[in-house]
Amino acid sequence: MRVNVVITTTCRESLSATLEGLARQRLRADEVLLIYSCNNSLLTRLVESFEGPLNVQAVSQEGVGIPGAVNTALRRLD
């Protein structure tokens, strides 16, 4: 069974705590997909810091709001 975690984010400080929690899980996700609508340079540094313990992929959100983020994730997971 494959486990994917999708996180839609505007890159708030709590994103780091969320990724830390996922990294501490005994059974880790196969992929953590970050759908972001924020400054890419801030997100890039955060993603790089979790490259070892997590398979994190960052994808820029297409569309507006939560529906845009969800649709972006669904297209990516197909």
Helix percentage range: 40-55%
Beta fraction: 15-25%
Q: If you average the pLDDT, what whole number results?
A: 89
User: Strands of the biggest beta sheet: in what spatial order?
Assistant: 1-2-3
Characterize the quaternary organization of these chains. single chain
Low-confidence stretches: none
**Largest beta sheet, briefly?**
3 strands, parallel
What shape does the CA trace take? Answer: globular
Tell me the number of strands.
3
Helical segment count: 3
User: Would you list the SSEs in sequence order as H and E?
Assistant: EHEHEH
Structural class: alpha/beta
Work out the radius of gyration.
12 Å
Amino- and carboxy-terminal Cα gap: 16 Å
Please give the structural blueprint.
Blueprint: E1 4-9, H1 14-24, E2 31-36, H2 40-49, E3 56-60, H3 65-77
Parallel strand pairs: 1-2, 2-3
Write a brief caption for the model:
The protein is α/β, with parallel strands linked by helices.
What tags apply to this protein structure?
3 helices; alpha/beta; 3 strands; 78 residues; 44% helix
How would you characterize the overall build of this protein?
The chain is an alpha/beta fold and 78 residues long. Helices cover 44% and strands 22% of the residues. The protein has three helices and three strands. Strands 1-2-3 form a three-stranded parallel beta sheet, sandwiched between helices. Strand 1, helix 1 and strand 2 form a beta-alpha-beta unit. The model has no long low-confidence stretch (mean pLDDT 89).
